[in-house]
Design brief:
By secondary structure, this protein is of the alpha+beta class. Helix content is 29%, strand content 22%.
């Protein structure tokens, strides 16, 4: 169990990562994060403030390899990244990217997460994940890494 002081400082830390971005990107990130926390309340958020992007993964465990999807936040936008997206059934051809394992959907706005086709894709990813998200309990946030060097988080 995380103590409240640790939780508070983690929340402030994540808020500071998000605040590095242009206001519109920061707002979209906070909104998308809120939607995903409500949909998957037992998910553990794994946060990586990396060189290229801020990544916030949603996992049933503290293991990065168990993450189902993540928000990948860049200076020019936010993607919903599916860690094993290339192996997902994608009849509507929503997934983008050239990776052999991962694939993403560009989030034009928070409403993209409510698109029925996007929701179905997310549910397909969640249903096949092992271990699974628990049906009870409350998730928490862990800052897994912070890169000393980072690309600019704001557009010029």
């Amino acid at each position: 169990m995380k103590n409240s002081k640790s939780t508070e400082s983690t929340a402030k830390q994540v808020a500071s990562f998000i605040a590095k971005f242009d206001p519109a990107i920061a707002k979209l990130t906070r909104s998308c994060r809120s939607v995903l926390r409500k949909r998957y309340p037992s998910a553990i958020e794994l946060v990586y403030d990396n060189y290229n992007a801020l990544a916030i993964g949603y996992s049933p465990s503290e293991r990065t390899s168990d993450a189902v999807f993540s928000l990948a936040v860049y200076a020019r936008g936010v993607n919903l990244y599916f860690i094993y997206g290339r192996s997902l059934d994608d009849p509507d051809h929503l997934l983008q990217g050239n990776g052999t394992q991962g694939a993403f959907i560009r989030l034009q706005g928070v409403a993209t997460l409510d698109d029925p086709k996007v929701k179905q894709l997310i549910e397909r990813a969640v249903k096949r994940q092992r271990p699974t998200f628990t049906s009870n309990g409350r998730g928490y946030t862990i800052v897994k890494s912070i890169s000393a060097k980072q690309r600019p988080r704001r557009t010029k």
